[in-house]
Design brief:
Layout (H helix, E strand, L loop, with lengths): L4 E5 L23 H11 L4 E6 L4 H7 L10 E6 L21 H6 L9 E5 L2 E2 L2 H12 L7 E8 L10 E8 L5 E13 L2 E6 L2 E4 L5 E9 L2 H16 L10 H10 L4 E6 L5 E2 L6 H13 L10
Parallel strand pairs: 1-2, 1-4, 2-3, 6-12
Antiparallel strand pairs: 4-11, 5-13, 6-11, 7-8, 7-11, 8-9, 9-10
Helix pairs in contact: 1-4
């Protein structure tokens, strides 16, 4: 069985959070969320981790998240996402400052990954079972193509008490295959009911609605599709300085036209994130609770 690779999207600075939150300590010895993600991935059978970072903070990042930190338990590589990394014939539009989005970040790893791989956000705590579930699925793919997967979380387990959140709201068929994934940018609980806000008003969501937390699994053919579709995206958004090439955009494209399928895997794991600075204490408390339960050692890398 092929050992899958973990692709960590760490190029974003976290504008709402106000600091390089990927390196912020949440564990008892200053461990970052990334540390727990890598620890869970190693236990789930992943053989390599590839970090997508930016040159502006590369030295600090690599000083912290280096192969020695993980004690040789997993291979480590770094790739870079920059605004000017575009297909031949394209240049950064004047006035463009926003990054090109999560799928552009994924594309940066095309030369580093040649096996099934999972994609995660650096600042999301996905839980050990989620890595076990997706790692098991990816390990069994072999040389398969066009068979993707994602871990779906119930929306009620992914909210913040400190503001609205953005989630990819999913519909699935009877065989747990994804049908559609729609990005909803303002989800919160209002008077006991989960709703998302849009121009039409408040739309309620069922408590167990599956949502994407950007924990996806792909086979390497995904890089070729991304490269091809990114050209189309750039042409279609020539005058839009804020358009982003998100993972759900191309997933919907490939699933919608029948090129690929995406299995929505369920997990018993609870998701935790630090969307806002005020979210951090709850995450620190949860990690302490998991340590007391024996899920993680107190000194993660000893």
């Amino acid at each position: 069985m092929t050992k899958p690779t973990l692709l960590v999207l760490a190029a974003g600075m976290g504008s709402r959070y106000g600091s390089l939150k990927q390196m912020d300590g949440v564990g008892p010895n200053g461990e970052a969320i990334i540390d727990y993600s890598i620890y869970d991935a190693i236990r789930a059978g992943f053989g390599k981790v590839v970090f997508v970072i930016r040159h502006s903070f590369a030295d600090d990042f690599k000083k912290m998240f280096n192969p020695e930190r993980f004690g040789g338990r997993i291979a480590v590589e770094y790739v870079y996402q920059e605004l000017e990394y575009l297909p031949e014939g394209f240049t950064v539009p004047e006035g463009r400052v926003k990054p090109w989005g999560t799928n552009h970040a994924v594309m940066m790893a095309a030369d580093a990954i040649h096996e099934p791989f999972a994609v995660i956000n650096a600042d999301d705590f996905y839980g050990a079972d989620a890595y076990k579930v997706i790692g098991g699925y990816l390990s069994g793919l072999g040389e398969s193509k066009n068979r993707y997967c994602m871990v779906g979380y119930e929306v009620n387990k992914t909210l913040s008490e400190n503001g609205t959140v953005s989630r990819g709201v999913c519909t699935v068929d009877a065989d747990a295959n994804l049908q559609t994934m729609v990005e909803r940018t303002q989800i919160e609980r209002v008077n006991g009911t989960i709703v998302y806000h849009d121009s039409e008003g408040d739309v309620p969501l069922a408590e167990n609605t599956p949502v994407s937390m950007n924990l996806f699994g792909f086979t390497p053919d995904f890089f070729d599709y991304s490269k091809e579709y990114f050209v189309e995206f750039l042409k279609n958004n020539e005058g839009n300085l804020k358009a982003e090439f998100f993972i759900p955009l191309i997933v919907n494209h490939l699933v919608g036209n029948g090129t690929a399928s995406m299995k929505v895997l369920s997990t018993s794991a609870l998701w935790f994130g630090v969307t806002y600075k005020e979210d951090k204490p709850a995450l620190v408390a949860k990690i302490e609770q998991l340590i007391e339960q024996g899920v993680y050692p107190r000194n993660l890398w000893e």
